[in-house]
Structure formats: structure tokens, C-alpha cells
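Table S2 (text version). Query chain:
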Amino acid sequence: MVRAEPARPTGVGLIVTYKVTKALLQIVAAAILLYGAHHGLSARLAVFAEHLREHAVHAWSNLVAAALLRFTHAHHGLLWTAYALLGDAVLSSVEAWALTRAFWWGEWLVVVTTSGLIPFEIRALFHHVRVGRVVLLILNLVIVTYLVQNVRQRRAAHAQANSRP
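Corresponding C-alpha cell output:
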């Protein structure tokens, strides 16, 4: 007799999709950065940033140029960024796998790792408010809140099922 798998809640499915998509994009970005680091991308970005700064007429282009210059002048900036992307891609993949397999600790892994980033996101918002940061903060708050509620509801249902005669 084949045991039927319990239906995965839609919210968990959306989180899995988000985590897998994020991991795939991070792997692609890391591969591009690793390739670029070994083929002079850092120097080309620095030249591009200097041209942008010289010919910029909008404030946003000066901000982009300054950020590119800081990034390219950092010691091994491209490599460290690529490694950080790969590390986060691995973590996102493990989170998605644990949620897909419905391990009891999977939701808690996502809650802990995601909520651990929230203070850093809030701090970044205090320095520079950007739409992307606000969206990321809201998305992470929604994910954490949803998963904690999901765990609580499941625990309450389990306790209620065990208290019946």
C-alpha cells in the first residue's frame, strides 16, 4: 500500500520556488563573476566606472560609478562576491530541499536563516532607502511570519488529534 503524501501548502510551494529561483540566479551570477575575475572584468568595470563618472549627467549614474569603483578596487572583490553568492545558493538549495521533503526542521531552518538577515536589512535601510531593499525586507518578513504560523497551526492540529480518545 502506497502512503499518500500530505499536500504541501501553497505558501510553502511558493517559498520553494523562490528559493530555487534565487539559488539558480546566484549560481549564474557567481559563474559570471568567477569567469570575469579571471578574464579582466574587474579592470573593465573600473574603466567603465571612470568613463561613467566623467560623462555622467544624472545623480544616479554618479552613484553607480562610485559603487563600481569601490567594488572593483576592493581586494579580490569579484572573487569574494562570487563565493558569497555560491554559499548563499547552497543554503537556499538546502532550504528548498528541506521544505520539499517536508522535514520538520526545514521550516525552522528557513525561519532562522531568513530572520537572521532582517536586522542587517533594516540597518541597510537606515543608510540608504531603496525600493529593492524594502521589497526584500517585506518578502523576508512575510516568509518568516507565514512559516511560524504554519508550524504553530500544525502543532495545534497535532496536539488536538492526540488529545482525542
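Notes on Table S2: The chain has a mean pLDDT of 82. Residues 131-163 form the longest helix (33 residues).
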